[in-house]
Amino acid sequence: MIPIAFIDTEIDPKTKKILDIGSTRNNGDSFHNASVLAFISFIKGAGYVCGHNILNHDIKYIGHALNEAGISQANIIDTLFLSPLLFPTRPYHALLKDDKLQSEDTNNPLNDAIKAKDLFYDEMDVFQHADETMKQIFYLLLNDQREFHSFFHFLGYKSTASEPDLLIRTRFGEEICEHVELDEIISTHPIELAYCLSLIDSFIQHRKIHSITPPWVIKNYPEVERIMFRLRNQPCIRGCAYCYNALDIHKGLKRFFGFDSYRTYGGEPLQEKAVKAAVNNKSILAVFPTGGGKSITFQVPALISGECAKGLTIVISPLQSLMKDQVDNLEKYGIIEAVTINGLLDPIERAKSLERVEDGSASMLYISPESLRSATIERLISGRKIVRFVIDEAHCFSAWGQDFRVDYLYIGDFIRSIQEKKNLQDAIPVSCFTATAKQKVIEDIRAYFKEKLSIDLELFTSKSSRTNLHYNVFERSNEEEKYQTLRDLIAEKNCPAIIYVSRTRRAYLLAERLTQDGFDAKPYHGKMEVSEKTANQNAFMAGEVSVMVATSAFGMGVDKKDVGLVIHYDISDSLENYIQEAGRAGRDESIVADCFVLFNEEDLGKHFILLNQTKLSIKEIQQIWKAIKEITRLRSKVSNSALEIARKAGWDDNVVEIETRVTTAIAALENAGYLKRGQNMPRIFANSILSKNAQEAIDKIIASQKFDEKQKEKGIRIIKKLFSGKSRKHATEEPAESRIDYISDHLGIVKEEVINIVNLLREENILADAKDLTAFIRKNESKNRSLSIVNTYCKIENFLLPVLGTQEKAVHIKELNEEAEANGCEDVSINKIKTIINFWAIKNWIKRHNLEYSKNHIALICLHPKELLEKKLEKRHELARFIVEFLYKKSNTDAYKDDTGKEEVLIEFSVHELKTAYNQSSNLFKLNVGLEDIEDALFYLSKIEAIKIEGGFLVVYNRLTIERLEEDNKKRYTKEDYEKLNQFYENKVQQIHIVGEYARKMIGDYRNALQFVEDYFQLNYQSFLKKYFPGSKSDELKLRMTPSKFRQLFGELSPTQLSIINDNDSKYIVVAAGPGSGKTKVLVHKLASLLLMEDVKHEQLLMLTFSRAAATEFKKRLLKLIGNAANYIEIKTFHSYCFDLLGKIGSLEKSDVILKLAVEKIRNKEVEMSRITKTVLVIDEAQDMDADEFSLINALMEHNEEMRVIAVGDDDQNIFEFRGASSKYLEQFILINNAVRHELTENFRSKSNLVEFTNHFVNRIRHRLKEIPIVARQTDNGQIKLVHYQNNNLITPLVNDILTTGLTGTVCVLTRTNEEALQIAGLLLKNGFQARLIQSNDGFSLYNLYEVRFFLTQLNITDDVFILNDDAWEAGKTALKKRFSGSNKLEICINLIKDFEETNPKKKYRSDLEVFIRESGMEDFYSDSGETIYVSTIHKAKGKEFDHVFLMLGNFNPNTDEAKRLLYVAMTRAKKHLTIHLNSEFLNDVSVEHLEKVKDRENWQAPNELAMHLTHKDVWLDYFRNRQYIISQLTCGDDLIVTDTGCLNSKKQSILKFSRQFLDQIELLKKRNYELKSAQVNFIVYWMKEGSEEEVKIVLPEIIFEKKQMDDQQKH
Q1: pTM of this prediction?
Q2: For the CA atoms of the chain, what is the radius of gyration?
């Protein structure tokens, strides 16, 4: 017996020192000691030394010891290299797992030495009993190799043969290719060849067993793959017995699928050619029509490679459901070699799929592009021979395709990285498939692979079209016509039919209606529950249901042969998709199928709208880049969830498919080189096993009180997995796979559970505690900041908890915010409330959903008893404070002193460590806490951003790992970077136009239409466009709407107005708009253009106005212009927007400081990001901005670097200087931002001479923005009359003038003061004219007007009512009209209600109504009536227009620019006639056509009557307390009896008393001979005394004084 020692060592991975040595000899002696000297003496006399992986591992550390013991290097045997040679068949040797010895123990080299001994003797035994030819082959190939020589030497084996190639050909005759160059392989790669032959021998012996080359061999001997392919997977040109049998594509087709021949297209053997090319290992691009047998084209080569060489084909497809269908379809043929790994699988199915790829029983793997980001998948792929990557839907690579996907651009990088990691010399072949592709797409795909992988794709495409499909298009003008046609067509054909619709809702409605009409119809769409989707699909496939109403999601991969009818109820969004969907008919070529389109131009409009909504704009990518720059400010690598990044970017949570949008934006940034997206990789490790062996660990788990039964079972599985994967040395340098996601994937246990169990194993000291959490603490930041954040949130949570109920309850978030503030939560904000609600939802405390059409409402329902949650809150709050203290204390310890110079200290810690620290703390009232509580508190700290924490269990929430590459903070994502996406979206727009053109052609000329389709796919794209869209017609292709819709929206605009609409490049635009120039119209159309033509999402558009009336007018006009989309646009007054930002409910009383506060909060980032993240800001009446409003604009611009601002205004009409407004802010805006100026100078409102007249006057204003004079669009003249007086009393002659003028159309009298207006209105009424004074509610809110309050009470609003009931609303209107039929304020109330209805057509929210009322002014709700003469001050008339304007200018000298502008506003209100009564000379020099100048020299007296409107200060307010019942019987406009001290009602009951102040005023008037004459109710309003909680109704009267006629004696 030759003496041999088996050895194993344990080495410290960091210091590389020997920790332990174990050895056993074949005489039974054993050794276990760390002493090298003792080891030398133990092995002296051994002729050979054997170990597992000894040559690459142990020898480095004990080589010198072996020398000293006299053991020759030539006598070292390594069992690692022998094992794949001698145990090639699955199940492999029981002691082996890939490159490792299986072990149930921790760190015991003696045990491992004994295992190496057992393995060696088994290897010896297998070799000695092997077939003699195989022994000789192995000997001839390997005897000279370092890894094997000593083995043959030890056995004393020699071969008498000398020509291995002859032996190989004899032994493997028809099992390998006859023409392979064996000589060359034998001389260059003998080891690799030996491994291949061993495996092939296994295939021969065990045909049904899937055995593969171990991953470590593939990694260390990459040539194994190439040699295996050469031997078994590469058809030889001359042909041989093996290739003819195994690699023949016809035999393969018959063997796997039972078919005798491949399909042809128009007589072309396209399928066969493509399969042949793939079997010949070529890279191909195949354009196969729908139903063209695409799947078989890659499945046959994949199955052949799997069978011959155990190669794996990877199929990348974007559709998860389609993958499963393909795998299921193969199983129907008895083919079980395909698996899929995707998000639809449960963990156990996923684990099973992984296992089947790992063990070689799967030869096809279906995955999505997103899966390529998974570390598990990459590792899995690295361990198999990859024969081909198949990429389905390959048009996704091209921006010219119908579905460009940025994540596809990563595929090439991934394939390249796999090739590099596997050290492959030859590129892995690629097959690309698409059903439809125009020439440009084909060029793009080929160019991509040429650039990324240096691969030339061979093209397989057919020019022939399906001959058994008949196409037809019916134009139908409305839904009902469409439906009737649909029903008739289905009834007539009476065969299986697919109806395609563009919206999910319509699929349900149509299927339901068809069912009611007696057809068997089922709906189908991508967002359906999987079970319902599958059931409906199966019913259709089985023929139980004959009609499927579906979105385009249906039919991919569905192969139903007898579909005889496809109807597009809505036309597809591209010709590609239409041909593909229509091609799902007539798969059985023996039937003739019909493909119909029910065409309505409006359907194209829906596609444009959908494209706009789903498009990822450059601005959005810039917002994500800005967010990532913010997140990576202190370190370049971070992990976050997509939702967190979206919120950081300021996106609204309600954005559709928000996570997909974020990952697409990140993919775009990655593609442009700004960042690198890492693998989605939890960094939690279950390593450092403390138990000595698996059994000890299992015993501990079973005995533990901390595990429940299920956790015990899973814990045992995890421990076994860790022991089997654990080894202190590997043939590859990779660490043992102890990562959480790896364990989760392989055992089929969800990640959260694995993390929980790993933490429990740490608690039980089975695993060492790993500090896998990192806190990032900023230098020089006191813990007080973090603690104050915690305290703020704790207070808010304690306030919010009682709000929850076990029934679903809608809450108004701004009301909550205000209540919280009132309850002592000083720093509360909407943002913080939402953060808490989100946190509670993630923790499953509550369920929440947002209410439609309102950003301010959330519906909540509590899922647990309140008492339980209160306890949890208390525990979490205490722990959160403790953790902050602990981490700050830790950051100040010596261990972190080295981090000087860094802005952030990284503190590593673990959940277990925190728990121990808390239990050891000196707190008297310690709570009983578990690991889950600590995790809860940490997650909470992370969510509220008190401390930035990463890693550990948080990986479950942070799915994205991002490494920033672009360090320059100023670098922005540019138009060039966006080029490819932009190209795609522009192309999508063209595709919609082109499919519309096809439909129109089909209606008129069938042959021409078919030629159109053929040319689209066959011609060069530019040639196609020139042929079918020549000249100006090509411009229509750029429109993001149909040409007819464009004409409808923008056809009536003037060239100047259109130039503003078309300016979509300028970042800052100022429109200086003259009076009557259609400013509102231009703005409304610009808003429509922004939404429909310029990629602006409604949630990213903000319009600010100065009055609620303006906001309402814009909303009403937008609704008319673009319909429902207008409901989603934020059009707000400056004040209302700021109240919103601060989460407060607006009212006049609070509005004075609100802007300043909002600006401060924006700059401190204390507001909700989505409320201030905008891509476009539109400002109406920008000349009226004051300092605070301008600050707000600047704060929004600072926050949004890329925001476009459109400011519209007319500095000539800035008449509010008294409240701080100044056009200098607009000028500053232009100057600072170098804004592009557009001038709207065409006046559509006024007659030609009126415009000329006002132009003469406006030139007197010294400093003006507009350079071009206003031009009248009307060519005819109106009437202008100037009446000059000698004296100061102009009221009476002005009224006389009105009485004698023949009035037509609308009339208004304008004055400078309220008093003048009041006197004129009174005098007109006295003379029998229907006159209306435009009043404002200066001293009170409309909310307090009696009529308004009455209406609100009729709506039965309680605290828990958020949406107003339509029936109650109608009843309220009826009751209002009935109760206040005599009120002169009823018209105002009715108009207010009407405006609210028009701007809130879908749902009426209580809070919106209240804000609408509080923000509105009474002057906004007067009807335009030709029967009424309106009397108003100039300020109130701004923005209005009248046919005839009378202007009274007593003692008016416009010396200042402000006065000139006021007059200019007044004069430009007139459309046809302007009459000015004045007593000064400043207009004498103006001369225009049809100007009549009158001089009135009469000495007019002041009117006999003087009217006054009393306000709160004029009445004794407390007096009303006891008059409530009497007041409630009154109505505005009722006559009152006036006394010296107050007023009585008609029953002579006292209603009100005058205030002392007003009594003094009466005395003064008496001295001027005025006496009280009459009174009437002007307003009834609610008033609340300060400090009181009770409201009272008060009456504000109109009082008339009359001048006493004096007799002569009195005069003297």
Answers
A1: 0.81
A2: 43
